[in-house]
Amino acid sequence: MNFAASLDRVERILAAGSWRSAVAGGVALAAYGNPRLTLDLDIVAEATAQDVLIAALEADGYATLYRSSGFSNHQHPDPEWGRLDVIYVNAATADELFTALRPLPGPGGRQIRVPRPEHLIAMKVQAMKNAPERRWQDMADIAFLWTLPDVDRDQVQGYFEKAGMRAQFEDLARGC
Question: What is the pairing mode between strands 21-24 and 111-114?
């Protein structure tokens, strides 16, 4: 998958509507210094962009594999364009998340905008809550993010507690 070209495509669509976005998932983790195998590009975008973004991706040949109010994933038949997963956030979350983005080196040497580690952790916690089978991989990613400088651990604890996952937070805190 050509991550840089796929990101350019998505950013062009979103910029046309003045919607904010950032890179999440494995590409964001790599930008923070934790490279791992990832076969898709994860984007976080404003929820109000969903209909337009999905229509544009489908017009570009992507098949929509799944869609809910908070998430969609898409697969292109050409491996160069690959798979895109999009996380949609409401206005309040968008304001908090997008005003705190960090520019970091990303695919193809281009600069990308990534959420703060705490926000990436919040996304991982929500993913584990929705799909418990993801726990081991997501907890490994969270453990890495937890070790980055200046991570607000009280905020991280709040995300776990809000998801009803206090025991997993305690495991994290003990293990790190």
Answer: unpaired
Q: What is the pLDDT of residues 97-138, one digit of tens each?
A: 999 999 999 988 889 999 999 999 999 999 999 988 988 889
Strands 71-75 and 83-89: antiparallel
Find, among 1, 113, 16, the residue nearest to 56 by Cα: 16
Same domain membership, residue 68 and residue 2: yes
Tell me the two tokens of residue 62: 């992507």
Q: Are residues 70 and 36 in the same domain?
A: yes
Domain count, the chain: 2
Strand partners, 22: 44
pTM: 0.92
How many angstroms separate the Cα of 41 from the Cα of each of 84, 95, 116, 143? 5, 22, 17, 21
The last residue of one of the domains, among 115, 145, 165, is 115
Decide which of 69, 85, 115 is a domain's last residue.
Answer: 115
Give the mean model confidence (pLDDT) for residues 66-77: 96
Q: For residue 166, what are the domain limits?
A: 116-176
